[in-house]
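Justification of computing resources. Each target in the renewal requires a structure prediction run like the one illustrated here; the chain below, 262 residues long, is used simply to show the kind of job we budget for.
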Amino acid sequence: MRNWILCAWIFAGVTIGGAGELTSGQQAELMVSIQTEDYDMVIELTDKVDPDSGWIRARAGAFQRRGEERFFDAEIEGSIKDFDAFLEIIPQQDPHHWQRGLSYYYAEEYEKGKAQFERHQTVNTQDVENAVWHFLCAVRAPGGSVEAAREKFIPIDHDSRVPMKEVHDLFGGWGSVEAVLKAAAPRDSDNLSERERNHLCYAHLYLALYFEAMGDTEKMKEHIRLAAFDYSMEHYMGKTAQVHAKVRKVREDEGGFEVDRE
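Resulting structure tokens:
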């Protein structure tokens, strides 16, 4: 899917703007780099392309994808630089860019993260996760607190994903940890479906983040182990759980195995 998106950007640009400054050999090398997901090479090959060239889309896509990969590798500052480069090329995507908000949180750029999630709210009005990450940044921003963050907590009424309603209630101060766990509980814990595993990954990720906001490090570790390892998922938020474990140096088990492996 990634390659298809990048190729679509390129072909759309070529139809509109032609080949730009790239030679036929460079174009061929660029296509190979896209197919092999060599984003460093895509960025290098498009370094001199005209901003009006269709090929600039390939450059933007490479910055975005490399930023995601850097985030997953817990290279937080690098991910922000790449996301910034993407948005410099396509600034109209700024309010949609919740990924940079997550990176801001782990970079301890809480004011920037808070502002990013506020802009995202204007284009994604019914997403509990956006409300939660805004809350998390508001708690840790200068002068922030749980009480102050709850006064500005973003109301969400129509996020039907499991267990998002219960997560929203918990962060808002009128829910409970037990309600989140109950909503995500599988029918048979010994025979999890992929969907049930996903519910548990989300539940424990947001419980970990909740306890982090509350200052309970031990409970944060307990839940992030479950989200990052026991119920690990390979989508963006599943990988965010793994990033959280790595950044916070949470061990997978009591034997001392760390996430931060080479």
